[in-house]
């Protein structure tokens, strides 16, 4: 066994992908004692992960039972990180809006303290909702922090685009390259789900609002202290990543209708990204004979939400 990366005496493990999934897998593998090299085509700030709001919420990810399990592990991890401001993670109360009565949301078993929203906690014109406190991950701060922790754990980071998994050196390979993972593994079931956000100045909001089924489309408002992320869109099959001014105007109008305090908040920045959609998250050992290849991708609109739970399973599979 030759040496790849820094760290302990375990296997030489290559991780392909340096978004939230690849970084978290690399960290957990290094902490377990493996010698890890991370191959990433782009820096963290140029990934889909950097576009995410990111509220802990299991949006557009399946299967439900595994998603709840991965989500619960991640929620615990983020709750611990929220104690340290440098991580960019905070715990914030908020309301999930229900356009039709939903007394027991499917995701609620993973979240303690879930209760029906009181009328005062509901946005204008909304009849029902669920109230809870969830992690909010400011990816603009979290990803650089995570990348630093990854390097400190002895992971060697290589900025390169992998063309073939077969060519990647190592005793085991983890494919965690988001939308690019399917093509690397001959899996054609992935689909981009384009999402656009606009970030405005935070007028001092205390809570987030999520309206998945709004009459005019998906809407969320996620305050992060230095800004508020307003979204969003979910366009299956669209591949553009340039923010569209008309879409932005519509997103802002919906966000301001839900949270009138945003009416005069100036726009600070904007972004669009491609969620790695897939019928189900793929987390399995795909080449049991010979060296292990572990697939970890297809997290849809919940990659941040599932990151720590999926990384724990990846470690077990490696
Ligand atoms: C508008 C929007 C809002 C969102 N909001 C949330 C939210 O609130 N909560 C939440 O949990 N999730 C949210 N998401 C979803 C979340 O962003 C994704 O699920 C997550 O970023 C997927 O992470 P990933 O690491 O798999 O992929 P990515 O972040 O896309 O990273 C892929 C990595 O692989 C690398 N790569 C690709 N091809 C290769 C190759 N051939 N060789 C080497 N490296 C390669 C890339 O350079 C990159 O480093 C949102 C997404 C969008 C677009």
Automatic annotation (TrEMBL):
One of its GO terms (cellular component) is cytoplasm. InterPro entries: DAO, FAD-dep_OxRdtase. Coiled coil: none annotated. Signal peptide: none annotated. Its EC number is 1.4.3.3. SUPFAM superfamilies: FAD-linked reductases, C-terminal domain, Nucleotide-binding domain. Its cofactor is FAD. FAD binds at residues 48-49, 53-55, 162, 300-305. It catalyses: a D-alpha-amino acid + O2 + H2O = a 2-oxocarboxylate + H2O2 + NH4(+). D-dopa binds at residues 220, 275, 301. GO terms for biological process: D-amino acid catabolic process. Residues 12-315 form the FAD dependent oxidoreductase domain. One of its GO terms (molecular function) is FAD binding. Keywords: FAD, Flavoprotein, Oxidoreductase. Belongs to the DAMOX/DASOX family. PANTHER family: D-AMINO ACID OXIDASE (PTHR11530), D-ASPARTATE OXIDASE (PTHR11530:SF11). This is D-amino-acid oxidase.
